[in-house]
């Protein structure tokens, strides 16, 4: 009887330790990664879709979850530009400046 109780308690203890280790490893998820690239012209009515297509044509190897388009006028320039800011689908290979 005593051996059975010791065995059950040790199994519960081992399961507790293993579940704690898995929880610690799962907590190391990388944060979001965003790419930001300027393009010529204005955003237009469907600016976010336009940015998505432009970013895909520029980065053939990257996949993006969503894009945000912002009109931007550089200082000392009359050119119209827009900045595409897109979130990468895989943040693991993100290189932050």
From TrEMBL:
Organism lineage reads as: Eukaryota, Viridiplantae, Streptophyta, Embryophyta, Tracheophyta
Q: Which GO terms describe its biological process?
A: signal transduction
Q: What is this protein called?
A: Uncharacterized protein
What family is this protein classified in?
A: Belongs to the DEFL family.
Ligase: is it a keyword of this entry? no
Keywords from the named record: Disulfide bond, Secreted, Signal
Q: Where is the signal peptide?
A: 1-26
Q: Which GO terms describe its cellular component?
A: extracellular region
Classify the source by domain of life.
Eukaryota
- Protein's cellular compartments: Secreted
Q: Matching PANTHER family, A to Z? A: DEFENSIN-LIKE PROTEIN 232-RELATED, DEFENSIN-LIKE PROTEIN 245-RELATED
- Gene source species: Eutrema salsugineum (Saltwater cress)
């Amino acid at each position: 009887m005593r051996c059975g109780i010791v065995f059950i308690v040790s199994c519960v203890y081992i399961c507790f330790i293993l579940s704690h280790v898995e929880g610690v490893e799962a907590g190391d998820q990388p944060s979001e990664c965003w790419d930001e690239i300027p393009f010529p012209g204005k955003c237009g009515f469907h600016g976010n879709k336009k940015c998505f297509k432009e970013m895909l044509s520029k980065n053939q190897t990257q996949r993006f979850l969503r894009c945000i388009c912002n009109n931007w006028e550089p200082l000392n320039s009359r050119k119209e530009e827009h900045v595409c800011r897109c979130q990468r689908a895989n943040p693991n290979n993100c290189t932050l400046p």
